[in-house]
Design a protein that fits this description.
The structure holds two protein chains of two kinds. Chain A has 16 helices and two strands. Helices cover 76% and strands 1% of the residues of chain A. Chain A is globular, with a radius of gyration of 21 Å. Chain A is mostly helical. The longest helix of chain A is centred in the N-terminal third of the chain and has 27 residues. Chain A has two domains: 271 residues, ABC transporter involved in vitamin B12 uptake, BtuC; 45 residues. Chain A has a two-stranded antiparallel sheet. In chain B, strands 1-2 form a two-stranded antiparallel sheet. In chain B, helix 1 runs parallel beside helix 5, helix 2 packs antiparallel against helix 3 and helix 2 crosses helix 8. By secondary structure, chain B is mostly helical. The chains are: A mainly alpha, B mainly alpha. At the A-B interface, helix 6, helix 12 and helix 14 of A face helix 4, helix 9, helix 11 and helix 12 of B.
Chain lengths: 340, 292
């Protein structure tokens, strides 16, 4: 019953996503949907580390920008889209590996501080090394690619590309979560010592997780530059890392749906807020503080908890309490337990 | 790309390096203590520095004495920092991710409020009149104000050293850094120490902000430029080590000034090189111990 409902929900969501350009109509909203999808890919990538690996990175905007800048510079130098994108992915993978080697010298707060500093290095290069990156003026990306002869210049075709990439990223995450590798990654998050004692190479598992996360971060970076057709140092700033971290946290870490919901919330809010006032950073900060203070486990688990609680109350009111199955009970205790 | 520098410039650069190093020490000593004692990565620290500098700017605009403005700004920031610590951070003890997000959230809030009040234009207050000139010695001119910044930083370093290493309070702080649970067991009020150290760190950051304003100037974005510097100093010197913070600060001061003169494009990036070296060779920092 629950499984059938879930399949129905997935099918409905897919149908809505695929037909989105037709029922939304307005180009502006189609573009916002593309933005949401590309940031959802970014958030899913970061969630591998934050959610499943327990490694909080504040330098991911750096990796995002590495991909973007590499591609933009290659395109500017006259290379084709395929060469530029391949090079961007290779460079981003290399950068992720370097990030991983350095940041994994420490875990917990140390990991976070090192990734923050590494992210700032990339910001420093992008902003100050003006002869290479154009400094604050950024780099224009004049054309979007046309894979298989289909031009991505129009909003709907770009939306479909983003959708395909997003679905691929989501599929990777589903596979990751269900794979032995995903299980061992969660193991290193919860019981690193025990995993070590069991013979797992904790360092290698974390390293691979960072590189995988870097790969999808790079892919979303490419989508980003093609979407905006422009890249500037602002992309690599700490604000970007913080925004994506907010997507992961607000949706709920270590869930598949969380980062996606987070991306919807943050992108929509950013667009709405920016339309009225220039105080996006203030709003971003206030959201952080409010979420941490009132819904520490994230919006998705928080809402699920509230709904479950509400449903229990209704059921008790109706005085129709059927014998609960062991599974329900297990879920409730799990759901209402304090976040660790 | 490399620029040539003369020997006369070297002396001036060295003075500037010492002044910047002293300033960085004022900024990062508090950061290091907060991090060492409370295990809190205080991402507001750059914002404290900037807000403190803006306070100083306003106090000076009202015609206040420079030193009084710096002290008042420090006091105001101690109050703000203490309030945030007592009311919000306190409830998140031991939870790294929420602490990071909360401090980051406040950093954004403070940055935007500063932009609202003091606008996007840079402010550069003048140093106090008695320190505006330069002293001449051995045929060279030394900017008086920067020498003063260095002197103040050294004085603060000595005061902190005496406080931490030679007083009862300092012994309690060290005990709290080494082993909070045992410190509690022997009757040290670690929670109050936390607040005290947090206020002290916030005050030092704000004081540094005012001291730095005459030569760094104050502008939006200063906060997130200073925060990584405090991070590097702590990674270089080792968590919770004042001596480490001092040495790390001067290394950065020199790298920044000489880097700026020799490789203008890459000056900011060069700052991070020693951090990378340290991470590879000695991840606990120059004077740090292995953290669990």
């Amino acid at each position: 019953m629950i499984a059938r409902a879930r399949y129905a929900a997935i099918a409905t969501a897919l149908l809505l996503l695929v037909t989105l350009p037709w029922w939304v109509g307005n180009t502006y909203y189609v573009n916002i949907a593309s933005q949401i999808l590309l940031f959802a890919v970014f958030a899913l990538a970061l969630n591998i580390l934050v959610g499943y690996g327990g490694l909080v990175s504040l330098g991911h905007a750096g990796l995002f920008a590495v991909a973007g800048y590499t591609a933009a510079l290659m395109l500017q130098a006259g290379y084709g889209h395929f060469a530029a994108n391949s090079a961007a992915i290779v460079v981003t993978l290399a950068a992720s590996a370097i990030f991983a080697v350095l940041a994994l010298r420490s875990i917990g707060i140390g990991f976070l501080m090192i990734t923050l500093a590494l992210g700032q290095i990339i910001w420093g290069v992008a902003y100050r090394w003006a002869s290479l990156t154009g400094g604050d003026n950024g780099i224009n990306v004049t054309t979007r690619p046309a894979p298989f002869g289909i031009s991505l210049a129009a909003a709907p075709s770009f939306y479909f590309t983003s959708l395909i990439v997003f679905l691929l990223a989501l599929a990777t995450m589903v596979l990751l979560v269900r794979s032995p590798f995903g299980a061992s990654l969660r193991g290193t998050r919860d019981q690193a010592r025990r995993m070590n004692a069991l013979g797992y190479n904790v360092w290698l598992i974390r390293f691979l997780a960072i590189v995988l996360s870097g790969f999808w971060t790079g892919v979303s970076g490419l989508l980003f530059i093609y979407y905006n057709q422009f890249i500037s140092p602002q992309v690599s700033a700490l604000t970007t890392s913080a925004e994506v971290l907010l997507m992961v946290i607000s949706g709920g870490t270590a869930t598949l749906l969380g980062p996606i919901v987070g991306a919807v919330i943050v992108v929509v809010m950013k667009n709405v807020v920016s339309a009225y006032i220039e105080r996006w950073n203030l709003v971003l900060g206030v959201i952080f503080v409010v979420i941490i203070t009132f819904m520490p486990e994230g919006l998705v688990p928080g809402t699920v908890r509230l709904c479950r609680w509400g449903w229990l109350v209704i059921r008790t009111r109706l005085n129709r309490t059927p014998a609960r199955t062991a599974r329900d009970q297990a879920q409730e205790t799990h759901g209402s337990g304090a976040p660790s | 790309m490399m620029q040539q520098i003369t020997s006369a410039q070297v002396v001036i650069l060295a003075i500037n390096s010492f002044a910047l190093g002293g300033l960085l020490f004022l900024l990062s000593a508090g950061f290091s203590l907060i991090f060492g004692l409370m295990r809190i990565p205080n991402l507001m620290h750059g914002a404290f520095f900037m807000l403190g500098a803006y306070f100083g700017v306003s106090f000076l605009e009202w015609g206040m004495n420079f030193w009084l403005a710096a002290l008042l700004s420090g006091l105001a920031m101690a109050a703000i920092g203490g309030l945030i610590e007592r009311v919000l951070l306190r409830r998140l003890e031991g939870q790294v991710l929420p602490q990071v997000l909360l401090t980051l959230g406040f950093a954004f809030i403070i940055a935007d409020i500063c932009l609202m009040i003091w606008t996007g234009d840079p402010w550069q207050p003048t140093p106090p009149p008695e320190l505006r000139g330069a002293v001449q010695a051995m045929g060279m001119f030394f900017p008086l104000y920067r020498l003063m910044v260095l002197a103040v930083a050294v004085a603060v370093a000595i005061a902190l050293w005496i406080l931490v290493d030679w007083t009862r309070l300092g012994a309690m702080i060290r005990a709290g850094v080494d082993d909070p649970p045992i410190a509690r067991v022997v009757g040290i009020k670690v929670s109050q120490l936390f607040t005290l150290v947090f206020c002290l760190g916030a005050a030092l950051a704000a004081f540094a902000g005012v001291m730095g304003a005459p030569f760094l100037s104050v502008y939006p974005g200063l906060d997130f430029e200073m925060l990584p510097l405090a991070l590097i100093v702590v990674i270089l010197g080792g968590t919770g080590s004042l001596l480490g913070a001092l040495v790390g600060s001067f290394i950065l001061g020199f790298l920044y000034n000489f880097g700026q003169a020799m490789f203008p494009d890459l000056a900011y990036v060069i700052l991070f090189l020693p951090m990378l070296l340290i991470l590879v060779l000695r991840p606990q920092g120059l004077f740090g111990r292995v953290m669990t």
